[in-house]
Amino acid sequence: GTPQKYDPTFKGPIYDRGCTDVLCCVLLVIAIVGYVVVGVVAWTHGDPRKVIYPTDSRGQFCGQQGTPNEYRSRPRGAMPGTAPRCFASPPVCGVPAPGARAFTRGPSVSSSPIQICVSKCPDRYLTYLSAYSSRTPNELEYYQNFCVPEFKNLQKPPIEVLKDRECPAMIIPSTPLARRCFPAIRAKKGVIMVGNETTYDDGHGRRRNVTELLEGAKKANVVLEARQLAMKIFEDYTVSWYWIIIGLVIAMVASFIFIVLLRFLAGIMVWVMIVMVILVLGYGIFHCYMEYAKLKGEAGSDVSLKDLGFQTDLRVYLHLRQTWLAFMIILCIMEVVIILLLIFLRKRILIAIALIREASRAVGHIMSSLLFPLCTFFLLCLCIAYWASTAVFLSTSNEAVYKVFNETACQFSGQTCKPETFNTSNVTKLCPDAQCLFAFYGGESAYHKYLIVLQFFNVFMFFWLANFVIALGQVTLAGAFASYYWAFKKPDDMPAFPLFSAFGRALRYHTGSLAFGSLILAIVQVIRVTLEYLDHRLKAADNKFAKFLLSCLKCCFWCLEKFIKFLNRNAYIMIAIYGTNFCTSARSVLPLLMRNIMRWVAVLDKVTDFLFFLGKLLIVGSVGILAFFFFTHRIKLVQDTAPPLNYYWVPILTVIVGSYLIAHGFFSVYGMCVDTLFLCFCEDLERNDGSPE
């Protein structure tokens, strides 16, 4: 490309500019209006209760106010306030996914189990025949809680009750899970048991082994263990949340102090940061070795991670020598890599320090830039919340579909029916044992047919708007820092409010350009999501060529996404400075970078990013070590202050992740500042090259 010529009138970001990429701006507005319409339609038709609450065989919610099953929340004998649950016989109860077939056994819809709403899961083995034959009326009244609501005649012969499918043939001890009843399966000394029994009466005079129930609830135990783990984690959060907040505040204060010190002591702070990171990693290696050596000879410490498998109690892994050996190896690799990089990049670090020192001055003149990521974070949260709520309402906007279920052959079997008019239709006359029961959630209207298209549009708009918000933050920071660089007398030649000025210019003139860049990125990201979905669906397939082709496409589009992000970021800087459209900015920034490829690769992309990573690592590592010593009661001064926990890693990991996000927010401003100053520096070298002009 052609280098920029000397221009005596150029003094930084151009203020006399016009609107760019107007067509893309109009397209974005139309898309947002359409997105709002989709959201309104989804909220009108959708019902999130379908995701949370179970339904009976008629598609009616269990125990919800304003529903026919509201009274089932407190049947006879139930304790007041007990939560309504879903019970099925056979015991395969649950809410079907919208649009999916459920509640069927085998190819015939006639074998679908009956689901009813109860306030309490059964706690005993009992058959209807034994309850009916019992001399105590309490047995039959208890059993009635698990019959259909219309069943009132307790004197009806059992054979007719079971034939009419008014009551289950048998009930078994069950455990509530997600408002549903699952068989209470447990293993005792390798023997599968339900309750305290290994066999049960199926209500038809036959004894069956409880292992036959495993297929219907094979994932129930895993989910139960996961629920117990989640409950313990929740308990840990309830007793440690204020200490977690204190840890995050410490991380924020440490990040702010680090940024302020960089302004005055950039060189010293960088070298101190490098030494501190090496020391922190060194201490981590030492601690892992001490734990590894301490476990030597202890019973069970030599079990391998592969033999142990997955355990919900993660503390088990800390009693294995192999765990600490793996941690030690990882930290050693990180230590060696960092030391080697420092040795080979020692000369370039000096140049990077000069760039960081100038960036520190820029941030010092525009301190409000440190708070600007909060605005971006808030807008991203709005995008995520709108996308998630719209997705839930779209997925639950199907209608309840009822079909004909029967025990004997019937020409109407599987056909759609309406419960309100079913008893007066010809179906009951031709098929006396037929029933109109809830089958699944679906619909045959035009809206229901295009639900998948609306879901796709929802995902696409989420990516577009999220990328637009990020682009708005980048071009705003770039405009503010560019006004600092090109100001001859700082801060006199700078705008009074550089950040707000840049934000106003971006929204007023360049909404279309930001929409254009984010649209290209969103298309690539949607393609990547589609490829991931196809890869997930093809996992069970045995087509190696298709898997190979899919892997190649995933790799190519991953590289393309990275390149577009890099191009967009630098194009936004040129937009902030010159006010040109997206294509012109991208076309001008690539030659500029290529003419300075050695400077850019060696200084900006490698060394400065590496130094910023070390800064994040230092803050996260320091706060993480402090949290580790506090929550494990190893600080004697506050030993009694730390709360008792089920898993001490829960608040520690939360503090570490939160500290990284906080440090990343501060250093992302620095990263954008360095990128902007470096591009301005390259422009400056070409415009003011020492010639007579």
Automatic annotation (TrEMBL):
Keywords: Antiport, Cell membrane, Glycoprotein, Membrane, Mitochondrion, Mitochondrion outer membrane, Phosphoprotein, Transmembrane, Transmembrane helix, Transport. The keyword Lipid metabolism does not apply. It comes from the Eukaryota. It catalyses: ethanolamine(out) + n H(+)(in) = ethanolamine(in) + n H(+)(out); choline(out) + n H(+)(in) = choline(in) + n H(+)(out). Its main location: membrane. It is found in: Cell membrane; Mitochondrion outer membrane. Pfam families: Choline_transpo. It is a multi-pass membrane protein. The keyword Glycosyltransferase does not apply. GO terms for molecular function: antiporter activity. The chain crosses the membrane at residues 21-43, 241-261, 268-286, 324-345, 366-388, 461-486, 507-527, 571-590, 610-633, 645-667. GO terms for cellular component: mitochondrial outer membrane; plasma membrane. Belongs to the CTL (choline transporter-like) family. Choline transporter. PANTHER family: CHOLINE TRANSPORTER-LIKE (SLC FAMILY 44), CHOLINE TRANSPORTER-LIKE PROTEIN 2. This is Choline transporter-like protein.
